[in-house]
User: Which sequence fits this backbone?
């Protein structure tokens, strides 16, 4: 049985991510847990224009033939659900926040008040194979266990935001990019003034 409410929520979330420029046309993925299953966007789909058939329901604890049509990050989503109590995951490519990973090593700490309040320090994960790999899945799970954070950046790749519900994961993804933009603009201005 397919949960239409979850599908509608994923479609809405994809549209907001695209409109806020948190993903480019065919990038990013979204999932929601329902018991021992997850709903996840299919590979190569445009998050800003999702239809019901662009979302697939799969088991969390076993692989299936249909896995090959799911997002290439399925392995990461499954690993997080298997090892946490999160119910929603957004993988996005926020421009400013991702840019910061080229210059920062271990973490990104927002400098604005809202960022300090809602985001806190964001771990930056550095792996050789950053896209849809077991290496990334293991690194994220290990970092989740250590920090308990909901927000993560993957060096030169993008963000993973995990939360109890999809709406809050969307809020945190948007917050992350806003904080990244402020940080970037302030630091660039400081650099220009001090030249």
Assistant:
């Amino acid at each position: 049985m397919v949960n239409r409410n979850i599908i509608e929520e994923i479609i809405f979330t994809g549209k907001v991510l695209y409109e806020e420029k948190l993903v480019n046309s065919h990038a990013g993925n979204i999932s929601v847990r329902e018991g021992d299953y997850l709903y996840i966007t299919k590979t190569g789909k445009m998050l800003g224009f999702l239809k019901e058939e662009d979302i697939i329901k799969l088991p969390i604890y076993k692989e299936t033939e249909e896995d090959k049509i799911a997002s290439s990050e399925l392995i990461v989503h499954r690993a997080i659900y298997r090892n946490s109590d999160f119910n929603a995951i957004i993988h996005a490519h926020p421009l400013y926040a991702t840019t910061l990973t080229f210059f920062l090593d271990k973490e990104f700490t927002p400098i604005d008040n809202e960022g300090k309040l809602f985001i806190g320090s964001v771990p930056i994960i550095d792996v050789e194979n950053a896209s849809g790999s077991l290496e990334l899945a293991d690194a994220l799970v290990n970092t989740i266990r250590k920090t308990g954070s909901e927000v993560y950046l993957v060096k030169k790749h993008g963000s993973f935001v995990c939360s109890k519900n999809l709406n809050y994961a969307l809020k945190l993804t948007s917050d992350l990019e806003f904080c990244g933009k402020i940080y970037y603009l302030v630091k660039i201005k400081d650099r220009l003034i001090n030249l």
User: Anything to note?
Assistant: Residues 166-193 form the longest helix (28 residues). The domain at 4-193 is CATH 3.40.225.10 (L-fuculose-1-phosphate Aldolase). The two ends are 62 Å apart (CA to CA).
